[in-house]
Design a protein that fits this description.
By secondary structure, this protein is mainly α. The protein is 48% helix and 8% strand. The protein has 13 helices and five strands. Strands 3-4-5 form a three-stranded antiparallel beta sheet. A hairpin with a 4-residue loop joins strand 3 (186-187) and strand 4. Helix 3 packs antiparallel against helix 4 and helix 6 (156-171) crosses helix 10 (264-277). The N and C termini lie far apart (89 Å).
Amino acid sequence: MRLSDLVEEFLLDCRSRRLSLKTVTWYQNNLRYFRDWLSAEGYPDRVSSLTLSHARRYSQYLSERTARKGTFVPTGVQRGAYALIESDKPLSANTVAGYLRTLKIFSRWLAAEEQGYVQCDMLARLKLPRRPQTHQEPLTTREIEEILAGYNLRHPIGARDFAILLTYLGTGLRATELINLLLEDVHVDEGYLRVRAGKGNKTRAVNLPPEAGRAILRYAQHFRPPTEEAHLFVTRTGSALTYNGIKMVMRRARQKSGIDRLHTHLLRHSFSVTALSNGMDLMTLKETLGHADIRTTSGYLSMSEQQLIQQQRKVNPLANVRLLKAIRKRA
């Protein structure tokens, strides 16, 4: 059978299981990259090309490949066209692991009893690259103040972006959850949001801080353009805000604040670490973030470096130890 046909069936099955659009698109792109590599290497578009040997060679290729970055290229118009160009940085271990994990999921799907296209999981022994245990510092109070400062709250885009950032920082929503918020999901008076488009299509209620609620109310009542669109956050023309629109919001915030490490997940990460530091228990945070597995939530247990130092200073193991008195050496 043609490998490309099986990929399409796999993606159709993912959609029928109501996986998020972002996840399905991620699978689609990763599998397309693998099929492009097979074609470039001269392998046929057949399921027999999905072997452990080929996957290991593909893994080696990814480890030697450089990452692509987005930029605007001149096209004769004022802004140019957005395009991806090669950089001099190698793909991160997390990115390589993502490409290979998709292959393993696809291989396991092919061998599942429901499909039975192959007799066994060909990539069960494919090892993923070791991912570095990096510690991501949450945003400090000063950094948050710098991110939120300087917005023109009398301008539609300024009021909208300000409300988006406060919603992120105050609720810890995912990017896809924020852009899918409907007007009817926002309950400012009661102080909560109804998240209907969560990961795995799980509905949950999330507390809405009054600061974020006021920003949303100001935007919705005074600056949201007249439109039949049901989504809360819209473009200046009244259409629903997309994920690319959120990336533009983050880009403007980075340029304005000078905080280059700012991105959507850092806002979610900062919310989670702050919530745990202020006394929220792990199970409550799990439900707040919409995690299916508490092991995912436990990744936020690490303190910021400053919090860690403060806690360590409370316990001095040398406090009650009698030490020799320092004697000055004679000249």
